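Handout for the seminar on molecular recognition.
Each group receives one record of this type.
Step one: identify the two inputs.
Step two: read the structure output and locate the region that could contact zinc ion.
Step three: write two sentences on what you found, then compare them with the reference statements printed after the record.
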Amino acid sequence: MKITLDPGHGRLSNRGVDPTYYEGTRMFLLAGFLKEELEKYEDVTVNVTRKTLDDDPSLEKRGRMARDLGSELFISLHSNAAGSEKACGVSLYRSVKLEGSEKLAHLLADGAVSVINEKTGVTYKRGVKTRTYDENGKTYDYYGVIRNSVGGSVKYSYIIEHGFHTNERECAFLQSDENLKSLAKKHAETIAEYFSLKKRKEEGEYTEYTVRTGDTLSEIAKRYGTDYRSLAKYNGIQDPDRIYTGQIVKIPSEQSDGKMIRKGDTVRLKDSAKTYYPGGKSFKSWVREYDFIVGKTVDSKGREVFKGGEKCVLLGEKINRKTKKTAPSINTWCSIENLDKIN
Ligand SMILES: [Zn+2]
């Protein structure tokens, strides 16, 4: 998905109670952190309306950029100001034109409040609002950035006021880079959760496997779709015949991804699967091809059967070949290699 972030104002705009605070500078920094956090997720591209700290495009240009770039989400980042130093809290303005944008608005506001209030002790949710004006019998969004962003691809258009820079505590909060990073992280997590975004795999990621009694390196490798030589090399194991119970074996992510089947996983029988155990009959004649659950099954005494070894058990429906009727459950052993993990 495409996202446009708009750090409000220009470099030296809007001083805070702390005279070294400038809204336009701090929000530029926040946008940078947020872009970085958001781009940790798959298929996310983030455009920032100000390319440099000194950029200060018009409100119209900022909003239009979101539309022109095909963004789905537009967020203008701000801190608030008031005559009274007591005023504090988080406000979020959303477009009156975009129905369905209210839920995410609340989630983002709540997230910001939780992060800021943890440090300030005073920050609260002032509200999620729309602000409009009427002209010639028509209603328009009051804020230029929001008004100009709406149309085309944009489905969510927000201004978030991250506390007041005229409030001592909130201004102090926004002056810390670490705090802005926490805020960025929270916003990114909220957005990721809302849109079900997946984290990108980072290079060098691996899964840890703990060796159990009776395991051999080649068995472990087989289970993850690799071979013992590369696993030994990856782990710096000199003698592949010597591994011990409790040893941690690192499985590179390209191997572990989707390969390891554990209790509770949802699996599907591979098309290539031809055998079942015991016997040698075709699986397909016995078990319907849809989602099966691994490991939940029990023997006649109610004990769990799955042990995480070479074999695993499928639960599904059994089709009686004579009567063509289905039985409510079946537990059948098959090799774990015959299964694909699908969750
Ligand atoms: Zn502002």
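Reference statements: Residues 274-300, 302-319, 327-331 have pLDDT under 50 and may be disordered. The CA atoms of residues 273 and 338 lie 5 Å apart.
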